């Protein structure tokens, strides 16, 4: 198996064949880097849709499934019984259950 820059993929996987030219942790820089260039940006769908609303960009479905992103929340153990923490955990569990269910056609 060939190791890609960001993750373990087989050599024939499209993600392993990417040529990463620029990487930024600051999403607000992506339009500045990409507009007027031949760069292709991969980012979250919510950010892409937000930028497409007012910038000359095109959104394309890449045609392959994406790996899911994990959400991590942590707090001090003594706060476990606080109502807001219990509410947050309940909401996150409900959303996770909805995501795991298949969507009806």
List its salient traits.
single chain, 105 residues, mainly alpha, two-stranded antiparallel ribbon, 3 helices, disordered N terminus
Tell me what you see in this structure.
The structure is a single chain. The chain has a two-stranded antiparallel ribbon with strand order 1-2. The radius of gyration is 19 Å and the shape is elongated. The protein has about 100 residues and is mainly α. It has a domain at about 5-50. It starts with a strand and ends in a 5-residue tail after the last helix. Mean pLDDT is about 75; it is low at about 1-5. It is about 30% helix and about 5% strand. About 0% of the residues are buried.
Task: Please describe the topology of this protein.
Elements (H helix, E strand, L loop, with lengths): L2 E2 L2 E2 L21 H5 L10 H8 L30 H18 L5
Antiparallel strand pairs: 1-2
In short:
The protein is mainly alpha-helical. Helix content is about 30%, strand content about 5%.
The largest sheet, given as strand count, sense and whether it forms a barrel, is:
2 strands, antiparallel
Structural class: mainly alpha
Fraction of residues in helix: 25-40%
Quote the beta fraction: under 5%
Cα gyration radius (Å):
19 Å
């Amino acid at each position: 198996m060939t190791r890609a820059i960001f993750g373990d993929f087989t050599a024939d996987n499209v993600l392993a064949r990417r040529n990463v030219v620029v990487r930024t942790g600051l999403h607000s820089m992506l339009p500045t880097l990409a507009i007027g260039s031949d760069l292709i940006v991969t980012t979250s769908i919510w950010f892409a849709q937000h930028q497409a609303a007012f910038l000359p960009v095109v959104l394309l479905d890449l045609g392959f499934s994406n790996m899911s992103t994990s959400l991590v929340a942590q707090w001090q153990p003594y706060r476990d019984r606080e109502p807001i923490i219990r509410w947050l955990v309940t909401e996150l569990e409900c959303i996770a259950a909805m995501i795991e269910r298949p969507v009806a056609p």
